[in-house]
Design a protein that fits this description.
The N and C termini lie far apart (50 Å). The protein contains 9 helices and 5 strands, in the order ααααββααααββαβ. The protein is α+β, with helices and mostly antiparallel strands. It is found in: Cytoplasm.
């Protein structure tokens, strides 16, 4: 059965879970909201969104060096307490994200980090492309929006499908870990180094 955006919105408001988690729970429950709430609670995902507003001032810096010593990643991920910073679940997630960055080369943490001028250029390119393809004017904005979503998946860490589980984005992996450890988690920043790569201007 088809799950509507309205159903997803209602479930998110009721549980505080993320969009994709809510959609998956509704699909699993065949659209039954009560069952979907139970599924989210069993997975510990209900309420994860509410934790995302809390201050994260502890955490760790992790380093990952690829086997051939040609790619390296430094990553800072914050949490609320030193207790969680030492937690194995948290540390494993951070290391998995560092490994993902080495493999997938994101440029930014999230779409909010993309400079406005780069975003405007991307919008203009996709608008011109849609018009050149002969798309009707009334659907051009929707097409641009869809292509921007694809662009975010290419360049933004939190929007990328996780290399170990392409059905899950890095953002969803973070939210699942928030639910598991009971604290807000923020991917603060990262640097990826590759031998021979040109330095940004």
């Amino acid at each position: 059965m088809e799950i509507t955006a309205k159903q997803v919105k209602e479930l998110r408001e009721a549980t505080g879970a993320g969009i994709m988690d809510s959609k998956k729970a509704l699909e699993e429950s065949q659209g039954d909201v009560e069952k979907a709430v139970r599924i989210l609670r069993e997975k510990g995902l209900a309420g994860a969104q509410k934790k995302m507003g809390r201050v994260a001032s502890e955490g760790i810096v992790d380093a990952y060096i690829h086997l051939n010593n040609r790619i390296g990643v430094l990553l800072e991920v914050n949490c609320e307490t030193d207790f969680v910073a030492r937690n194995e679940t948290f540390r494993c997630m951070v290391h998995d994200i560092a490994l993902h960055i080495a493999a997938s080369s994101p440029l930014y943490v999230s779409p909010e980090d993309i400079p406005e001028n780069i975003l405007e250029v991307e919008k203009e390119i996709n608008r011109a492309r849609a018009i050149k393809e002969g798309k009707p004017e009334q659907v051009v904005d929707k097409i641009v929006e869809g292509r921007l979503k694809k662009f975010y998946e290419e360049v933004c860490l939190l929007d990328q499908p996780f290399i170990r589980d392409p059905e899950t984005t890095i953002g969803e992996l973070v939210r699942e870990t928030i639910a598991a450890v009971g604290e807000n988690i923020v991917v603060r920043r990262f640097s990826r180094f590759q031998i021979g790569e040109a330095l940004p201007e």
